[in-house]
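Quick entry, no commentary yet.
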Amino acid sequence: MSCHHEHNHDDDHIEPPSTVFANLFNYIDIPNIKILNAEEPENAVGIVRPNEEKLVQEPVLTTDADEELLISIPFIGHVKLHSVFIRSLGDDTSPKEIKLYKNNVNLDFDTVGSAQCIQTLNYPESIGPGITTSDGTDGIVQFAVNRPKFSNISSVTLHITQNYGAEQTKLLYLGFRGDFTELKSAPVIAQYEAAANPSDHKVENRNMQQQSSIN
């Protein structure tokens, strides 16, 4: 299914939004991240990490059977997504096309083709460690997303459809920036016993007296 394309030129890189909770790492439901077609999915989750660890080069997420990769990121509340950060090795294992989906953590390779793609990102060639990008980071590419379309979302899924020619795709870092809104708890419905009616007690007492006199 076709979706909006973002060509990765300098105008794709945006300034960080002015928000206290700009980096969304603390609001990602880490245990429920789903990665399909990774060699070691349990270790691959490690590429999603805090902003201060974005330049760490381990672990490396490596695809298993081919170059395709599907990563579903659930949040613990609602998010208005501003941008996606991706870091690769800067060689032919780097992703080339990344399709974004929202609010569907159950996507797999059988269903993603019929799902509604919200936006397509084109990752630049030869951007990796040792190469400073336009936003001043070491090989990290920042993609601006369509904010109105990624407003009030509970999850985002990335589908890497192809790389630059290698049999496997490799990623070093994946991060997100935006605004977070905590989920509100459901209202508590309390049941209260109706106040006693004094006349009820009079009737009850009268009945008890009648029963006593009969006995």
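second:
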Amino acid sequence: MTQKVDISLRVPGTMPIPELMPLIQDIEAAGFYGAGILDSQLLCRDVFVTMGAAAAQTSQLTLFPAVTNPFSRHSSVLASAMQTVEELAPGRIKCIIGTGYTSASTIGRKPGTLAQMRNTIRTMKALLSGQSVDFQGTPGRLGFAAGRDLPVLMAASGPKAIELAGEVAD
């Protein structure tokens, strides 16, 4: 029995969006599963604007940040952005979160910690599923959560990170 292998490509977030869209359309036309958009705020175009543009230019391609991080955007902002882009491409969006090395190093910060990743992933998943979350004593809920399964994955290396990914990520 032969199993299908889904292959995605990471696209250069440094390209101007009008130049990147034909490449993303070519990736879809070539039969690839997905396109990952680099997320590093001083090196690339905004990942969620780019994903929205790509969603409007494609019909089957899965789109995802490759990868976002737990500190340059609050978890509520990440959940809102992911849900908004998912409205443009229902069932074709997923989120991948990592420590954000390049995002951190370009602004003089250290990469995200495993504790930050755990909290961000749990919070995002709760918000995306329509649940209320406690933000330092203030309850918050994503008012337009669709309740669809939007996968939240974790980029991980090392035994503790891999264990955490198995615990909290899809």
